[in-house]
């Protein structure tokens, strides 16, 4: 079902009021930052709702000290902090254990997102999140929540033939891991611009026995050119056509993208299927943290923990 089905056939423009209540999907949203983008925000508690989960992306070349400093700052500000552990940039088990221990001891972190990472050639011993999980090190150091990646539009780094065979097998492995350990787990997806393939994927996984909560990746408000650049770099799948179609419309080319339509799709689906495993929204603030959070708060998200 497409967005036109939900909205009675009228395509909405950016800036229009939502036709569907977004509060159910914006309640408890999470946010992704990098150390360099986090430094641009002087006061997170004055901007971001209390206890928001904030992921810290670990980009290749970022020193662990910068990751730790950002994690410590955000934890002390009262947020749920979830640093990335990209398998392919971790040299060996000693490095992995050092990072886990330092996050716990220096920043009081007990949760992490484990993923393969956007690197073609592994820097060391690991190439997948499953290998990181199998070390048992996160359990050893008391990490209570472990999130993993989900791929509703496939992943050509994992399935070079364009199928979903390997990513599907990985999802089932992660489901099994969650059932034989005490870790609280969820899957987090890459951002998409059409909710239909995400809904279809989530429903299919659930029918196959994978019922981990899914935190749906959504790109925050940004210039269209910025989104297309990031979408291509991040390997966004068929939903990229939504942006390409918008770019072909000269009247919309200069109008900033807002995620209203994709969130309306998600909200309508959750109202129709309350038992859906599409649990919450995870924002990628590609147009800036302040721009994204302000938009989310104005469209139904919780308010900042303090005004400052």
TrEMBL record:
Domain of life: Bacteria
InterPro entries in the record: FAD-linked_oxidoreductase-like (IPR029041)
GO molecular function, one term: oxidoreductase activity
Entry keywords, A to Z: Oxidoreductase
UniProt-recorded name of the protein: Methylenetetrahydrofolate reductase
Organism: Mesobaculum littorinae
């Amino acid at each position: 079902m497409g967005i036109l089905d939900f909205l009675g056939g009228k395509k909405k423009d950016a800036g229009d009021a939502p036709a569907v209540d977004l509060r159910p999907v914006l309640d408890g949203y999470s946010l992704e930052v990098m150390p360099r983008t986090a430094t641009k925000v002087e006061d997170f508690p004055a901007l971001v709702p209390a206890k928001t989960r904030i992921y810290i992306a670990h980009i290749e070349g970022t020193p662990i000290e910068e990751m730790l400093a950002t994690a410590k700052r955000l934890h002390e500000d009262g947020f749920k902090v979830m640093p990335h552990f990209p398998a392919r940039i971790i040299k060996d088990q000693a490095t992995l254990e050092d990072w886990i221990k330092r996050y716990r001891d220096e920043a009081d972190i007990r949760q992490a997102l484990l993923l393969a990472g956007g690197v073609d050639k592994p820097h060391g011993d690991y190439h997948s999140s499953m290998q990181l999980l199998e070390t048992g090190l996160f359990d050893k150091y008391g990490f209570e929540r472990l999130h993993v990646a989900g791929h509703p539009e496939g992943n050509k780094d994992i399935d070079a033939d364009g199928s979903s065979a390997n990513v599907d097998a990985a999802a089932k492995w992660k489901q099994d891991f969650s059932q034989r350990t005490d870790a609280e787990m969820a899957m987090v997806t890459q951002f998409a611009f059409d909710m239909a393939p995400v809904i279809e994927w989530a429903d299919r996984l659930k029918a196959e026995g994978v019922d981990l909560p899914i935190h749906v990746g959504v790109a925050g408000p940004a210039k269209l050119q910025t989104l297309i650049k990031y979408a291509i770099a991040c390997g966004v799948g068929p939903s990229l056509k939504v942006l390409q179609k918008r770019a072909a419309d000269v009247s919309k080319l200069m109008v900033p993208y807002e995620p209203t339509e994709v969130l309306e799709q998600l909200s309508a689906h959750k109202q129709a299927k309350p038992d859906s495993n599409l649990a919450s929204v995870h924002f990628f603030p590609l147009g800036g943290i302040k721009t994204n959070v302000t938009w989310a708060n104005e469209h139904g998200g919780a308010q900042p923990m303090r005004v400052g």
